[in-house]
């Protein structure tokens, strides 16, 4: 038996270089000379869609990015210790993935892992903040039974089936409250995905039983333990949050401990149109934008940079565009095609694709190598010079060699491939058109099948006797968490190795296995062609203090990050806003 507590998680990180994740320190812009201030309103550019419900277990996007201001998780990011405020070894900009060594307890103090149990200890005094929500419940202390109720509700919700909840009978035995502040999760075998399935992943937000009884779908009933409370939701207009006056967390700045949050109010104006959101940012109506929840495309750089006082920085994105081969189609229950199932032809098509040209034409700035895992996850990323020469070759555009490999594979006259694409996604239609033009030079014809999204899903789902098999499709994927990314993309090709990785408690040993799978998949399987992870902008006004670009603390959660931001109201006023 060994024990993992929050402070112990840090020990292996002391020798890491500053910003191992590859981000630059922007603290000078964010820190300011004056100390922390309480009060004011922070307006974020996160909201592009109305939330369909306040209940995340209904499985509907984008609920969780709005509930996370109110509802806490077991785990959160230790941004004070490891981010720019502290040791400056991690940027916390990768969606859905905070490496375990940079994690701390949210509503829990610490946890312990044994061969068949996870034992969690709750922070005494954490309160369900029902201020103004007395029709739902009275403010009371969070106890172990509450967490068992919420997590079991998540694990047994029908809508959560796509999150591997079918593992429940095979992996988890059950969970129970041992006492008021301790709850236990029993399992048949250790599974490293537990953090994303129990601790800080999709739909792990903690709901009180009283909220569920009152109707968890209703924003007026939402009561949580997080730093903010729902003040008002006006459909099509805005979600407004107010500070939780009994929030448990604090932060220390220059040796002084401060209660959180600093701002009185957070506003999320619902602005579906991108150009309107950018205009609101440029005119000071939005305080900051950046990261995967509020991306600012790089093509706005010139216009935004002309705005006096506005701070504009280029940063790496978190979304990789990939052309995936429909080989064997094991996960879809349909056969692959003669072309897609040939590793020799997959290699030829990769070599015959000018990724750099596509990335420049489509995104202006992009990284074509941050795949399957980005360098934002330094422990999992494999630099190009560490790949075998045969894998490096796949990233080098060589149409002559591609033609030769195609002929050697038995297709001297070339062949035709079928590639469905969402007609409404003009970016991917354009990328596929560029690929078609490049492949025409190596004797390959691309039969593009643009169709609306519902028809596309049906086309890709149907069987061989109903629709023609397709050879490849263009899509986007997050390229951060190795368990999610490598497992989802390559796990069924290296099943035994991936299972061993999931069942390895030691993080370093697990990462060695995942990195090995990643190299072998790139080199031996060639499941797809990465087409670029676009750079984006991080934009903020100088009155936004103590934000260093962090955008990740849990699955789509930013509440603890935003609770640490304060507004220099005098500076804002002096600048005319």
Structure commentary:
The protein is α+β, with helices and mostly antiparallel strands. It contains 19 helices and 26 strands. The strands form eight sheets. Strands 16, 17, 18, 19, 20, 23 and 24 form a seven-stranded antiparallel sheet that branches. Helix 9 packs antiparallel against helix 12 (399-408). The protein starts with a strand and ends with a helix.
Strand content: 15-25%
Show unreliable segments. Answer: 1-33
Average residue-wise pLDDT: 88
**Gross geometry:** globular
Oligomer: single chain
Sheet with the most strands, sense and barrel status: 7 strands, antiparallel
Provide the structure class: alpha+beta
Helix content: 25-40%
- Number of helices, counting only DSSP H or I runs of 4 residues or more: 19
Amino- and carboxy-terminal Cα gap:
57 Å
**Rg over CA atoms:** 24 Å
Number of strands: 26
Architecture blueprint of SSEs:
Blueprint: E1 2-4, H1 27-31, E2 41-43, H2 63-67, E3 75-77, H3 79-82, E4 103-105, E5 108-113, E6 117-122, E7 127-128, E8 140-141, H4 144-156, E9 172-179, E10 182-187, H5 194-199, H6 209-215, E11 228-234, E12 238-243, E13 250-253, E14 256-259, E15 265-269, H7 274-282, E16 288-289, E17 296-297, H8 301-305, E18 311-316, E19 319-325, H9 343-351, H10 355-363, E20 366-367, H11 389-392, H12 399-408, E21 415-422, H13 426-440, E22 444-451, H14 453-461, E23 472-478, H15 482-490, H16 495-502, H17 507-525, E24 528-540, E25 544-545, H18 559-563, E26 566-567, H19 569-574
Parallel strand pairs: 2-15, 21-22
Antiparallel strand pairs: 1-5, 3-4, 5-6, 6-10, 7-8, 9-10, 11-12, 12-15, 13-14, 16-24, 17-24, 18-24, 19-23, 19-24, 20-24, 25-26
Helix pairs in contact: 9-12, 15-17, 16-17
């Amino acid at each position: 038996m060994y024990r993992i507590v929050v402070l112990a998680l840090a020990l292996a990180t002391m020798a890491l270089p500053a910003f191992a994740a590859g981000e630059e320190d922007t603290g000078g812009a964010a820190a300011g000379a004056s100390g922390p201030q309480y009060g004011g309103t922070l307006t974020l550019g996160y909201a592009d869609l109305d939330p369909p419900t306040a209940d995340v277990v209904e499985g509907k996007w984008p609920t969780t990015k709005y509930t996370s201001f109110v509802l806490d998780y077991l785990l959160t990011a230790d941004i004070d210790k490891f981010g720019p405020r502290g040791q400056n070894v991690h940027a916390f900009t990768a969606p859905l993935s905070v490496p375990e060594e940079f994690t701390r307890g949210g509503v829990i103090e610490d946890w312990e892992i044994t061969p068949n149990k996870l034992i969690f200890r709750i922070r005494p005094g954490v309160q369900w903040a029902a201020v103004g929500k007395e029709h739902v419940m009275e403010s009371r202390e969070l106890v172990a039974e509450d967490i068992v109720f919420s997590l079991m509700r998540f694990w047994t919700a029908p809508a959560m089936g796509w999150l591997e909840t079918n593992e429940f009978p095979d992996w988890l035995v059950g969970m129970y409250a041992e006492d008021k502040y301790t709850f236990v999760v029993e399992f048949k075998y250790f599974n490293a995905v537990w953090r994303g399935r129990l601790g800080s992943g999709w739909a792990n937000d903690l709901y009180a039983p009283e909220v569920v009884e009152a109707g968890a779908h209703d924003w007026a009933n939402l009561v949580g333990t997080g730093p903010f409370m729902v003040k008002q939701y006006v459909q099509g207009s805005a979600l407004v949050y107010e500070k939780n006056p009994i929030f448990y967390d604090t932060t220390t700045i220059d040796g002084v401990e401060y209660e959180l949050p600093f701002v009185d109010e957070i506003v999320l104006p619902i602005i579906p149109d991108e150009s309107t959101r950018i205009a609101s940012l440029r005119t000071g109506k939005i305080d900051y934008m950046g990261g995967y929840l509020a991306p600012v495309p790089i093509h706005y750089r010139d216009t935004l940079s002309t705005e006096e006082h506005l701070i504009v920085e280029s940063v790496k994105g978190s979304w990789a565009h990939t052309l995936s081969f429909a080989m064997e189609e094991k996960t879809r229950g349909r056969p692959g095609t003669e072309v897609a199932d040939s590793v020799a032809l997959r290699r030829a098509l990769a070599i015959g694709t000018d990724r750099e040209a596509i990335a420049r034409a489509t995104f202006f700035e992009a990284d074509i190598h941050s795949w399957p895992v980005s360098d934002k996850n330094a422990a999992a990323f494999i630099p190009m010079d560490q790949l075998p020469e045969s894998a490096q070759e796949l990233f080098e555009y060589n149409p002559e060699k591609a033609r030769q490999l195609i002929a050697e594979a038995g297709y001297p006259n070339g062949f035709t491939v079928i590639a469905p694409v969402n007609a409404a996604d003009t970016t991917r239609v354009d990328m596929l058109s560029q690929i078609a033009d490049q492949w025409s030079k190596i004797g390959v014809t691309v039969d593009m099948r643009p169709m609306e999204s519902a028809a596309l899903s049906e086309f890709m789902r149907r069987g061989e006797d109903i629709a023609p098999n397709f050879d490849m499709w263009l899509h986007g994927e997050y390229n951060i968490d190795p368990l999610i990314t490598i497992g989802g993309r390559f796990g069924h090709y290296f099943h035994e190795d991936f299972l061993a990785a999931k069942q390895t408690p030691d993080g370093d040993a697990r990462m060695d296995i995942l990195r090995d799978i990643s190299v072998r998949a790139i080199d031996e399987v060639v499941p797809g062609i990465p087409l670029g992870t676009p750079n984006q902008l991080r934009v903020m006004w100088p009155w936004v203090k103590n934000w260093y670009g962090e955008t990740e603390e849990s699955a789509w959660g930013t509440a603890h990050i935003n609770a640490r931001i304060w507004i220099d109201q005098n500076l804002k006023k002096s600048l005319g806003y």
